[in-house]
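Journal club side-thread
Mid-discussion, someone asked how the predicted structure for our own chain would compare to the paper's figures. Pasting it here so we can look after the session.
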Amino acid sequence: MNKNSARLGIFFSVILSFSTVLAQTPAGVSKNVPKTPTDNKTAAKTTKVVTSENIESDLAEALTLIESNHVNGKNLDYNELFKTSIDSMLHTLDPHSNYFDAKETEQFRTDQSSRYFGIGATIGDLSDADGKVIATYIKATFDGAPANRAGLVYGDKILEVNGVSMIGKPYSEVRTFLRGPRGTVAKLVVEKYATGKRETVEIIRDAVAQPSISEAYMIRPGIGYINMSGGFNQTTFAEFKQAMANLKAEGMQQLIMDLRNNGGGLVNQAYSVANTFIGKGQTIFTQKGRFEGTADSYPSTNPNPDDTPLVVLVNRNTASASEILSGALQDHDRALIVGETTFGKGLVQNPFQLDYGSMLLLTIAKYETPSGRLIQRDYSNGNLYDYYTKGGTYRDELGSQTPKGAESKTDSGRTVYSGGGIMPDEVIKPQTLTDENIRIEQKLVNPLFAYALELVYGKVPGFETYKIDRPIKFDYDIKNSDFEITDAIYQNFREFAAQKYKVPAAQTDREKEFVIRTLRTELVTAAYGSQTSFQVFNEYDNQLLRAIELLPKAKQLAMEGAKANAKKMNTGLNR
């Protein structure tokens, strides 16, 4: 075990750091906890004082036995072994405390900075009729990113990266070659789809923005839409503030805020967004620490809150900071919450930096909404798989089950519940697909991409007007007339899919809406970028379309909440 002594030292360092963190006791809290009653004779025989030396000795002995006797003992991945051990220990406490090794710690910091380092391009692979990957292609670049400055465009086939062939590699593998430290060179050999000629492009990797807000545009006259699926990172509120200003300049009178699939992040950013809509003095959330009697309440500081009618979209992947935001808006009747019951993650994590660049993300408190609701759902059985699947991904499809916690009241007197995330005011199920639908759509993905390449480069006879021979036009709101997929184009694709990919025409017809939506998305991606392409999907989103219809109800709810709060304040002043 000599060759792994350094790694073992790291593991002991983490264990000891962890025990030090947990052993911290604030002033006034006694360490003399009564012992559990037990048989004195048995205790005398079995009780052993646990010290750091005991832990180190036992672990060293266990690892020696594993190395010497386990069938894979000579090929152990010590980093993975130690990480799994620490994570298992943490998950006996709660599902959200985690240990990050040095690489994961760096990625955690990068994610919170709303950026990554690479060339700044969306890529996708193309397979043949037999399912064999042909190559990976550029689909879009980001505004101002290195790939955009280098002139890469939709349809550029990536042949090599720094001398390594990318032919036959899926896009997920190619992506790892494109990313890298800032300032390093990514030397790409690409083949231009229009001419078939090869070009060598040297790109200096740089910071690429990962905005919290993927789209903010006028989805209907007078109705703004802000997609905040990117989490709450260091730039979230600044992005939100700018998006609001832009939309108001375009005539926004009502707003839909989309928090679906927003897994949370920095709570101060969620607080700032809530502070935009909630009046001064009204609580946004309360944080309760591990010791009884310690609680901090965070009220709004905004004397002139925005009064734009607001619908908030949520689903089962809406979690943590996004639940704090939606819970605050719901408790004060400031927004109508639409969609599915949220994930139910209301625990506060604090990062503790450890030796060798590693980190503990340790739960130190719980969040409550303004009405006193606990957001966190039950984890008493300690089963991590059940927590993330039966409670989340595979939860009751209706998404309308009532949380089991105590009742609370919103400002206007509506009943809400604790202990199971945020239950929407209007439950709207997402559209679902059958296994057969999914199977056919998967068969159509590659022929759609292949056909889109032909359209974009004017190689489909009779449809040369769809040729896109210009750089991406960013920050564009699409119109119904942009790249309309006519019946003539649909029929032409139908023949293409049957001839080149052996997809029966009957199967293509069964997924006609999918074909039209996906093909238009590809064309919009080539012309206006990958972020703008989401606008196409939004026109088929049943939850979003229903949210638009519910805006008058959101306006009425906000008025009732404002009246109730004003009455409460007047009553308080008169006492």
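Post-session note: The chain has four domains: 1-18+53-92, 115-209, 215-430, 435-540.
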